[in-house]
From TrEMBL:
It comes from the Eukaryota. GO terms for cellular component: cytoplasm; nucleus. Residues 30-41 have a biased composition (Pro residues). The lineage of its organism: Eukaryota, Fungi, Dikarya, Ascomycota, Pezizomycotina. Residues 1-48 are annotated as: Disordered. This is Probable E3 ubiquitin ligase complex SCF subunit sconB. GO terms for biological process: proteasome-mediated ubiquitin-dependent protein catabolic process; ubiquitin recycling. Residues 123-159 form the F-box domain. It comes from Emydomyces testavorans. Belongs to the WD repeat MET30/SCONB/SCON-2 family. GO terms for molecular function: ubiquitin binding. Component of the SCF(sconB) E3 ubiquitin ligase complex involved in the regulation of sulfur metabolite repression, probably by mediating the inactivation or degradation of the metR transcription factor. WD repeats lie at residues 316-341, 342-382, 383-422, 423-462, 463-502, 503-542. Component of the SCF(sconB) E3 ubiquitin ligase complex.
Length: 579
């Protein structure tokens, strides 16, 4: 039988092999004509017809099987013969196909521990390259390398190599407040003492005394709670932490955003500048106190003093001020309200510090120090002993140290209200003092800096090198930085009691000075603000355009504030926001 189709019918191809007879057919029976194949049932597989492509597949399988049986030498001969038959186009294809297979990523086979050790070594090398883009390129080597480079251990190593603060310390600073900053206050050891005191303050709520004024009662949070720290966005990995710290450091080296604000229409002398987590505070000799937010936007002006304001000390929303009108005033900066006017001094209040959120100590030209209860608004003690103006003071724990124009520094007990010892040795007025609980440093008009033991009163060292008044000094750990009217800055090692760096910083007096673990910032009456590398003593850059005079500078980790005179006007420049 034949298939019936349009046109001429064609017989089905007959296989080469003979078809076996079915068992029910007699051998003598005639051969049945070919019949169409039955339609496959759902359980049966449809017949397949072999094509030229199938023949090629069979050839490839046989060739691969043959090649796999050859030895290495025979395989090389076989391949060489095949390649000799190829033209350039085919050889190009072979090259493109073979090249990726020749690239071996060892990190695909190394265990994780070994890979991370290699990354650690690579990170040590990369730490000398001041460009994190190198790591970004390294992450593109392979998928495995990308995973390893993005491992937090790699970025933790880089953070350590760059001496970036640990994430745990960032977390502490976010949730543990500290006393607000001044150019001579923030980096001394009062930080630890204040931090401990403030941490203990979280444990109990404050119940104001019934004898307090209604203003005090309404402002219980000012005295009863710790100051609030401006919170930085918490990083979630060392990679993001490194990026954040790197951008901050780059901004210090190359410059961040700069905002200039004119705060007075006339010429005003800036007597005090503080940068706190919430505020920028400026005191002037025209009796004004200006409050700005940390972006340099004016919030309010505190009016109350009738003569120049010469001293400020902030704590959270609380502010204590003193000046030529002999008054000490207590303010609520969040509202601008005056809480107390404290009277007792008979001459200009020249310096102020706070030992805790309820206690302030003031030093005056009337030769006395007074200890004030800020909550009750009364004087608790009068410290008498100096014979000339009290120019500077510093606090650590229950101890306050003061420097005077009588050339003497004194050590006092705050709780007992008495002088513990007198430090005599300078030949002229004392203008600056620092105290960290272990050592006292004093700077004098006699051009020397003396290091004292607060427990024995002995002078451990006399640091000489300045040629004029030493009016600026700051101490942190075993490092002391001093600035003089000779325009020079000196960085001292308190372990060796010797100068590490001698910087010819300014053409005239150093008017303001501050340092942290990385840099020194200085302002001078030559109108310039400069940043120095603390480790090398090299000039990093000038922070601002030259002015007629620079009154004060202060900075924190991500922001700097400059008070200067330019064009006959008092201006404030805020530099920061590296992101």
């Amino acid at each position: 039988m034949h298939f019936s189709s349009t046109g001429r019918s064609k017989p089905l191809p007959t296989p080469n092999k003979s078809v076996p007879l079915l068992h029910n057919l007699l051998p003598s029976a005639p051969t049945s004509p070919p019949t169409p194949a039955p339609s496959p049932t759902p359980q049966q597989r449809a017949p397949t017809w072999q094509t030229a492509l199938d023949d090629g597949d069979i050839f490839l399988r046989e060739a691969k099987s043959y090649f796999s049986l050859l030895g290495r030498a025979d395989r090389q001969t076989f391949l060489a013969e095949l390649l000799n038959l190829c033209d350039n186009q085919l050889l190009g294809f072979v090259h493109q196909f073979v090249s990726p297979k020749l690239r071996k990523d060892p990190f695909e086979t190394f265990p994780n521990e070994l890979c991370l050790r290699v990354v650690d070594q690579a990170a040590q090398i990369l730490s000398f390259i001041d460009d994190p883009k190198t790591l970004a390129r390294a992450s593109q080597v392979s998928r495995r390398w990308h995973d390893l480079v993005n491992d937090d251990l790699t970025w933790k190593v880089l953070c350590d190599r760059h001496s970036y603060r640990r994430m745990s310390e960032d977390y502490e600073l976010k949730f543990n407040p500290y006393l607000p900053t001044s150019s001579t206050y923030r980096f001394n050891s009062n930080f630890n003492r204040d931090l401990q005191q403030l941490q203990s303050a979280y444990g109990s709520a404050h119940d104001p005394s019934s004898s307090n004024t209604s203003a005090i009662a309404s402002l219980t949070g000012i005295f009863g709670g710790p100051p609030v720290r401006r919170q930085r966005t918490k990083t979630t990995s060392y990679r993001s932490h490194f990026k954040q710290r790197y951008m901050v450091e780059a901004a210090w080296r190359k410059g961040g955003n700069l905002k200039t604000t004119h705060i007075t229409p006339d010429h005003g002398v800036v007597t005090s500048l503080h940068l706190t987590p919430k505020y920028i505070l400026v005191a002037l000799d025209n009796a004004k106190i200006h409050i700005f937010n940390t972006e340099g936007e004016h919030q309010r002006t505190l009016d109350g003093h009738v003569m120049g304001v010469w001293a400020l000390v902030p704590w959270g929303d609380l502010l204590v001020s003193g000046g030529c009108d002999r008054d000490v005033r207590v303010w609520d900066m969040s509202t601008g309200a005056s809480i107390h006017k404290l009277r007792g001094h008979t001459s200009t209040v020249r310096c102020l510090k706070m030992s805790d959120r309820k206690t302030a100590i003031s030093g005056s030209r009337d030769t006395t120090l007074r200890i004030w209860d800020l909550e009750a608004g009364v004087c608790k003690n009068v410290l008498v002993g100096h014979s000339a103006s009290v120019r500077c003071l510093e606090i650590h724990g229950d101890i306050v140290v003061s420097g005077s124009y009588d050339t003497i520094a004194r050590v006092w007990s705050i709780s007992e209200g008495r002088c513990l010892r007198s430090l005599a040795g300078h030949f002229s007025q004392i203008y600056a003092i620092a105290f960290d609980g272990r050592r006292i440093a004093t700077g004098s008009l006699d051009t020397s800096v003396r290091i004292w033991d607060p427990h024995t009163g002995q002078c451990h060292a006399i640091l000489q090198g300045h040629t004029s008044l030493v009016g600026q000094l700051q101490m942190s750990g075993d490092t002391l930085v001093t600035g003089g009217s000779d325009g020079s800055i000196r960085v001292w090692s308190l372990q060796r009691m010797a100068a590490i760096h001698r910087l010819a910083a300014h053409d005239n007096s150093i008017t303001s000075l501050q340092f942290d673990k990385n840099r020194v910032m200085s302002g001078g009456s030559d109108g310039r603000v400069k940043i120095w590398d603390l480790a090398t003593g090299q000039l990093v850059r000038e922070l601002s355009q030259p002015a007629e005079a620079v009154w004060r500078v202060t900075f924190e980790e991500e922001k700097a504030v400059i008070m200067a005179t330019r064009g006959g006007r008092t201006i404030m420049e805020v530099s920061g926001d590296p992101y």
